[in-house]
Amino acid sequence: MTDNTATDDSDETDALLSRVRVIEDQPLETRAAAFGQVHDALQSRLEGGDSRSHG
C-alpha cells in the first residue's frame, strides 16, 4: 500500500511556489492583490482543515 499524502503535499507546495514566483514578477499593485488572494486561499484551506478534524 502506498501513501500518496507526501506526493500530494509536495505537488501542492510546488504549485504554491510556482504561483509565488509568478506573483513576484508582477508590478507592486498587482502583487499586493495576488498575495491577498493567496492568503485568502491558504486561510480557507487551513480553517477548513480545522473543521474537518474537529467536526
Can you describe what's shown?
By secondary structure, this protein is mostly helical. Helices cover 85% and strands 0% of the residues. It contains 2 helices and no strands. It has helices at residues 5-24, 28-54. The chain starts with a helix and ends with a helix. The model has no long low-confidence stretch (mean pLDDT 86).
Could you give the topology of this structure?
Elements: H1 5-24, H2 28-54
Number of DSSP E strands = 0
Helix content: over 70%
Question: From the alpha-carbon coordinates, what is the Rg to the nearest angstrom?
Answer: 14 Å
The average pLDDT is: 86
Number of helices: 2
Beta-strand content estimate? under 5%
Low-confidence stretches: none
How would you sum up the global shape?
flat
Largest sheet: none
Q: Structural class, from helix and strand content?
A: mainly alpha
**Ends distance:** 28 Å
The secondary-structure element order is HH
Summarize the structure.
This protein has 55 residues and is mostly helical. 85% of the residues lie in helices and 0% in strands.
Using brief descriptors, characterize the structure shown:
55 residues, mainly alpha
